[in-house]
Amino acid sequence: MNLAEAKKGQLTVFMILGITLLIVFGFLFYIRFQAITSLEISLEGEENIELIHNEKELQEYMEQCIKDLSEKLLLVMGSQGGDLRVVESQKNFRPYYYFSNTQDKMPPLQNIIDNYALLLKNEVPHCLDNLELTGYKVEKGNPTTKIEFEDYDVIINVNYPIEIETDRPDDSFYNKGRAKVSEFLIVIPARVKHIYNISKEIVKRQVANPELIPESYMAKQDVKIIALQPADDTLIYAIYDNMSTVKGRPYVWIFGNRIKVREKAPDPFADVRDELYIAEE
Prior knowledge:
This protein is of the alpha+beta class. It contains 6 helices and 9 strands, in the order ααββαββββααβββα.
């Protein structure tokens, strides 16, 4: 092999790796961007005005609205490794680093649950923004949320007292002029707790050996795990769970690790590398 052929072979390998990284990162960016954009649309409020004719429809409408919000929050959570802070500048792909400077910085699961519950509680009242309630008396209490990450599901309980009343006798909009709802239960088939525990074990193994990608452990899991190294000191993990369905697609969880880079030993033949290739001709 001569020098020109060797360099051509190396260039081909680098081009393939570069294209692969570009495709994968483009996909990860798409997931993140779609999640954040869909959430922002929900939080800003959609222009579709819903007409509710009775208490049953009001219950169903609120449950669907809360489910939609909950799923979009889960997508953002997964695309940011549990981080639910939605900031305009964060639309550029930046993974949440669980491991950095030889330290485990992974957030506790309960912190993620608490932040999820708080953000959902703050946004639930906006569900009423899309109802046509002109001319009706609306009384509403303060919402409370309780969220549990079970083995196979995310369980969401929302208590939000809503009472809508009209004193017009000819109005059949509500039964006896009044509709009253308060309890909403949402179940989302997403194994967030399971995925979190897998991520935690990966970080634990990387803390023990910062230069090791735990490929053997990853291969034994019932999810698909991709590990990419876009830079010498960075690993990006993407976990795909086909057993979890959020917004009609498999759930994805992305996080990053800052790894320790072993210094390369000096090449004793660096100064004569070209001569060695020429000698092989």
